[in-house]
Amino acid sequence: MTSVLAYNLIAHILLGLIGVIAFYAVWMILLKEKSALKWPKILAFVGTLSFFGSWITGGYYYVKFYGKAVKPVILSGKYPWAHTIITESKEHIFLLLPFLSIAVFLALWLLEDKIQSNNELKKWTAYLSGLIFVLGAIIAFAGVAISSAVK
Amino acid sequence: MSWFTFLIIAHVFGTILGVGGATFAEIFYLKALRDGEIDPTENSFLKITYRVLRIGLVILILSGVGIFILGRLTGHESSFYDPRFLAKMTMFAAIVINPILFQTKLLKSWIATSISLVSWYGAFIVGMWRNLDASYFEIISVYILAVMIAAFALEIIKKMIKIEK
Question: A31: distance to nearest CA of chain B, Å?
């Protein structure tokens, strides 16, 4: 792996992680009975940008390196399911994340007053942030499993 | 400075903020509840302490993942299968999941506080105790026991300083 690809992979992981942390924080703040939306708005913005950054860097790594050098090793190794099930699931679940994060981001920025006054809307925005965190965490663990399968 | 040294320093720094934050959060909380209510000054102290704790947690996660990536890229994966590391990850998972369960009211305050405090100290001690010779289940058994003892001890302290639940 070239150093450009190595840094690309590191950026993919760290940006994804920042997105997961940001939406965890959004979720926790929105779960409180009384919460100002200043921080959730900033965090949702940071999280959404991070997910897009992770998406682009991950995509570059996949096209330039994974498909040619990693995938054949996994498929011919002891744990081919690491690609056929985990990578395939990871790719498809990850397609959802940036769009789910945009939904939370837009809700917080455009419907701030409604979220403050409507508990039901606040609750569902919190649940959506929670879903983003859970999916993000699953994807992170899937990444660990895939890299373990290569080794 | 190598990446490894930088990440270790960041990891220790995050741990210091986290363990210190968890400790002072509990001390300030108990002190604030002594007169039965949390006044604005006490509230601001608590808020700052929780903020420090959260910053510590974020630094800890990022540096921890950095160490993990570095280990993978340089072929030092064996330490990731160490019972000490796996036990530390379990305690760390408890630190992350605990607030979720508390905020969704699935966990009572007395046990959530104890889990937070013991998990921070547990992860710190297990991380620092390099030659600890124990299996994963032994470490986790001691951890669960420590959570129970801490919950009991905190309740006794609350009674001693006459704090209502």
Answer: 6
- Contact criterion met (CB < 8 Å) for A13 and B96: no
Q: What is the pLDDT of residues B36-69, one digit of tens each?
A: 777 888 888 888 998 999 999 999 999 998 988 8
A2: three-class secondary structure by DSSP: coil
Chain-chain contact of A17 with B103 (C-beta, under 8 angstroms): no
Please provide the DSSP assignment of A107-147 as one string.
HHHHSHHHHHH-HHHHHHHHHHHHHHHHHHHHHHHHHHHHH
What's this model's pTM, rounded to 2 decimal places?
Answer: 0.82
- Is 0.95 exceeded by the ipTM? no
Q: Where are the domains of chain B?
A: 1-78, 79-165
B103 → closest Cβ in A18, A32, A148: A32
pLDDT digits (tens, 9 = 90+) for A64-74: 887 777 777 77
